[in-house]
Amino acid sequence: MSNESLANLMTETRRFAPPAEVAAGANVTAAAYEAAAEDRLGYWAEQARRLSWEREPTETLDWSNPPFAKWFADGKLNVAYNCVDRHVEAGNGDRVAIHFEGEPGDSRAITYAELQREVSQAANALGELGVATGDRVAIYMPMIPEAVVAMLACARIGAPHSVVFGAFSADALATRIEDADARVVITADGGYRRGAPSALKPAVDEALTRPGAANVRNVLVVRRTGQDIPWTSGRDVWWHEAVGRQSEEHTPEAFDAEHPLFILYTSGTTGKPKGILHTTGGYLTQVAYTHHAVFDLKPETDVYWCTADIGWVTGHSYIVYGPLANGATEVLYEGTPNTPHNGRWWEIVEKYGVTLLYTAPTAIRTCMKWGDDIPARFDLSSLRILGSVGEPINPEAWVWYRKHIGGDRTPVVDTWWQTETGAMMISPLPGVTLAKPGSAQTPLPGISATVVDDDGNEVANGSGGYLTLTEPWPSMLRTIWGDDQRFLDTYWSRFEGRYFAGDGAKKDEDGDIWLLGRVDDVMLVSGHNISTTEVESALVSHPRIAEAAVVGATDPQTTQAICAFVILRGGAPQEEGLVEELRAHVSKELGPIAKPKRILAVEELPKTRSGKIMRRLLRDVAENRELGDVTTLTDPAVMDLIQSKLPSAPSED
Ligand code: ATP
Ligand code: MG
């Protein structure tokens, strides 16, 4: 990426200091950066002591065969013991682990002692079904407590899980079952979504008709909705029967630190999803540490809520493993943010007195679109720290989040990380960092990241390039399941000895990092590199624009032409001259070169189930190509809608 690229995101000048009380009581202070810089491995060895090891590791990192890392290799531990049993043994069995809120309004509080009993029963049931250490288990569930129990039960017996997002199609499920060669599938009859039961089990039945899924012996089915479902006797077993009759005692076995914990497929914004493999000791160390540091968790008093789905990595690391390893009390919500009304999330924050909230920019922008008056109806004064993950958060949304959700009081932590990194990598610390809206800012203590140019040289402050991670980290992916070569090619071949994240980034004059979106999304217009994130951010700063997605489409004159898809605030109709006004607005914000050639108002944008915009599909549309893989899209019909609009696109000069 060239340096002339427009540096205008960084012209955002608002700054927010940590509130005095957060700074005064912070779990992690500025001293951590120094300690980690002085002795990085020593720092991680110290963080590993947050966990209970059956055998303490004596070795921190084995990097003798890069990029295949081993962390804490001679240590042994059990992840479920760390997330559950040890809190009970420490006398916190009565602490609520999970406040479950079902979409229809049913709720259930599960203490650590109850969680221990349920996880033990589920582990016993898996054993009875013949699941042995190392066997893979596919989990295809709604957001109900049994999903968490199932993951922990797998971890407890050393059976790596592969969680497949509950709204993926039978096809997507089948390919993931096949790729991981899963032996058992854990599912539910259905879950509640948008006010109605939504079936899951039929998709499992369909997936299991595919030849690649022939090795699945059993399907363990949670009864959630009570709806009628097809049943294959001999293969299908009810959770409440098979798990319910088990002993509530189960002795956890300690596994090697490098024992596989789970496989998780990336969201597929850039191509065919990759089966990312995470292991035990390093992963748990970093998710526990980062949750403690970045959310400043006080397990005795905080109520934490991460709105992600367990089907993606944020759900793994920051609903299940990080918070539970730390003994947190957390909310688990089954449904959508607007069922039965647009204030449902804020009602939940009020009901449980949520203090720490972790969500995604797409959700924040949606709430902005619904209006400030909605959160204003609820008491959100319990909130202490707000987090964001999944996409670059544009400064407008960041400031709105802090103001309308955080009462103009709370720190906002913009956390950059990936399925591959397993845990947060670049983020402010809420009690330390002078926050800059729109920037993830600084690598966390113990993490080494920088921005490099095409030749791999670190760029100067004020310049842009590629985000790379320059040292191994504990929760790094160990490989792509079954495909070491793809692991090497995708992440380790672009820059010698460094991990290439696939994201573009800039360093500002202070050396803070601003994420610019995927490198594949960067546009080349008349010799200038322009990031889609920057143009989107400029569009969204216009009062009429609620959301925007920008792509570069092949253009004979300018190499690529900027093509913007926008959702109008307050909906259609689109007023005369709006397109011209928007183009002028972008030109003013970023310079004439960044002016979109085409602007198309749409009702919806194509998003993955984790809420990310699939720009590659919009690029296919803008270039009149056949659409690429749409299997991880929330709603493939969106693409038909957008395509049908294209010929009459209001555009350009
Ligand atoms: P695939 O790799 O299959 O294309 P994906 O990259 O969307 O899918 P994830 O691992 O869920 O799958 O997402 C990680 C990516 O999300 C990062 O590489 C980055 O592009 C984006 N991202 C996550 N958090 C942030 C953040 N705080 N700021 C900017 N971008 C972010
Ligand atoms: Mg990715």
TrEMBL record:
It comes from the Bacteria. Acetylated. Deacetylation by the SIR2-homolog deacetylase activates the enzyme. This is Acetyl-coenzyme A synthetase. Residues 534-612 form the AMP-binding enzyme C-terminal domain. The keyword DNA damage does not apply. Catalyzes the conversion of acetate into acetyl-CoA (AcCoA), an essential intermediate at the junction of anabolic and catabolic pathways. AcsA undergoes a two-step reaction. In the first half reaction, AcsA combines acetate with ATP to form acetyl-adenylate (AcAMP) intermediate. In the second half reaction, it can then transfer the acetyl group from AcAMP to the sulfhydryl group of CoA, forming the product AcCoA. GO terms for biological process: acetyl-CoA biosynthetic process from acetate. Residues 31-83 form the Acetyl-coenzyme A synthetase N-terminal domain. GO terms for molecular function: acetate-CoA ligase activity; AMP binding; ATP binding; metal ion binding. GO terms for cellular component: cytosol. It is an enzyme of class 6 (ligase). CDD domains: ACS (cd05966).
